Amino acid sequence: MKEIRIHGRGGQGSVVTAELFAIAAHQSGRYSQAFPYLGGGGERRGAPVQAFTRIDDKPIRIRSKIYEPDYVIVSDTTLIKLVDVTAGVKPGGMVIVNTEKDPMALGLPKELDIRTINATQIAVEKIGRPIMNTALMGAFAAFTGEFDIESIKAAISQKFSGAIVDKNVAAAVAAYEQVKSR
Amino acid sequence: MSTISVIEGSMAVAQAVKACRPGVIAAYPISPQTHIVEFLSQFVADNEMDTKYVRVDAEFSAASAVYGSSATGVRSYTASSSQGLLLMSEVLYAMAGTRLPVVLTGVNRTVSAPITIQPDHQDTMALRDTGLIQLHVENSQEAYATHIQAFKLAEDHDILLPVMVCMDGWILTHSFEPVKLEDQEKVDEFLPPFVPKYRLDTKNPLTYGAYADDEVPEFRLMMHFAQERAKEKIEKIAREYEAKFGDYFGGLIDTYRCDDAEIVMVAMGSVIGTLKDAVDKLRKENIKVGVLKVRSYRPFPGEEILSAVKGAKMVAVLDKSLSVGQGGPLATDVKAALANKQAPPVLGCIAGMGGRDMSMVLIREIIEKSQKAITTGKIPDIEYIALKRQYLE
């Protein structure tokens, strides 16, 4: 089983990201589960939220939160001061942060495998709004190899309709290609 | 063709209710029930359902509206959580007493105070004695199946009681996972249109909710007898569902690796899957444990539980609610079912109230406390799992 924990703020699309990962896993013939944790009074914009995705080759039964993730995604670097975003990351696990900064400049534990992508900038360019989740998904696919870009595109097409499909696919592909070309 | 896709638990419920073709839905939104009724009102607005969706001012009105529609012989549905369910409670007693086969979803959430949106079982436990049949589900697929089964059960002329499908808020309603949605045609075959035994009809007038004095004990007893009959029907309908759709989630109970288990953990709802994974892990460490899922909380499957646990050394019951001044209601019921029988002792564990996460660490604590009780022979009245003592001071 592979476990992903996403740290974001209410309104940034963390829960949708977790859902899209679950759909992408299903599209590629695996089992999946995605769920949010909304603490401190619920669904408030700007409040720290966590969302989780599990992926496995067999049906998933466990429903506790994810304490030892294989992968962590940090959508917003202002969370690093507030939340222990790297808590419990498995040895060999990876932390992917949405930032223009260098991984070593984030003040995260040095022994972790930290990767960065400026997903907000890609989102502004491709979508016209700083909704960075699909760009982060493209980068995640390139960094981890857990998904091919086609299943990410298929998940976006299944979840959304209209013009935002193409814009979000463009954001995911741009992030994927930027990472691949490094 | 049935289809499998990754959808939210709330959507699984909404799709099941849609497939059951209720004539009336009345509901008032409350977290974490909200998505279910949002999806249903959208289906109605989009003409995907031939249903009257009644928007009401509060849950008392929601329950009253479906009371009325059900009494006219129309299949009716509502859903609520927490304070909303409690606001319905007066009407739910009347609904059960009047023998109206309404199906409702009890999306489990803590009851205030303190105010919170996190899940536990306190709300539906407060409705324990209403006369509602209460079925708890483990995952989204079971939630889907159990709503379809619930209408068939409620409307059976030997039963005629409201059925509440209980599901943990957030943990199930807001999880996305693969769910199989069945063909409408097959659902129609499984669940034919509602044929009321009695109904409000101007051409054949009768009274619902008439005054009674001397008849009261027998009225209440007849509800009890209907619940007794429901024990057989719940299993039968679950097997009919299996024959039609291929899925079985248990009847009154379900068991996992209980046959040679020394410790059987008894629980309800979404924690069951986590417990099954824990059992597999613990068995690798040569700790013989099993899980017993109580699927039907009312009627309570005392005999089935006794027969499943009788070989164990300890029965550890997990309660996600507390009957203040007594203990966990599920543990109390299990103890009553095993009293005066050849049965193992029962350790009542309060765990997961207020949404405190049911992690592997908590489950290990339950097993360690059970092992200690077996070794020492000392069984506390209540074990509090993952207690944070700093809050008690």
Mind explaining what this structure looks like?
The complex is a heterodimer of chains A (182) and B (393). Chain A has 182 residues and is α/β, with parallel strands linked by helices. Chain A contains five helices and six strands. Chain A has helices at residues 14-27, 119-126, 133-144, 149-159, 163-180, and strands at residues 2-9, 31-37, 48-56, 71-74, 94-98, 113-117. A six-stranded mixed β-sheet of chain A has the order 2-3-1-4-5-6. In chain A, helix 1 (14-27) packs across helix 4 (149-159), helix 3 (133-144) packs parallel to helix 5 and helix 4 (149-159) runs antiparallel to helix 5. Chain A starts with a strand and ends with a helix. Chain B is of the alpha/beta class and 393 residues long. Chain B has two domains: 3-245, Thiamin diphosphate (ThDP)-binding fold, Pyr/PP domains (Rossmann fold); 253-392, Rossmann fold. Chain B has twelve helices and 15 strands. In chain B, the strands form three sheets. A seven-stranded mixed β-sheet of chain B has the order 3-2-4-5-7-6-12, sandwiched between helices. In chain B, strand 2 (24-27), helix 2 and strand 3 (52-55) form a beta-alpha-beta unit. In chain B, helix 6 (140-155) crosses helix 8 and helix 10 packs across helix 11 (329-338). The radius of gyration of chain B is 21 Å and the shape is globular. The model of chain B has no long low-confidence stretch (mean pLDDT 97). Chains A and B meet through helix 1 and strand 2 of A and strand 1, strand 8 and helix 9 of B.
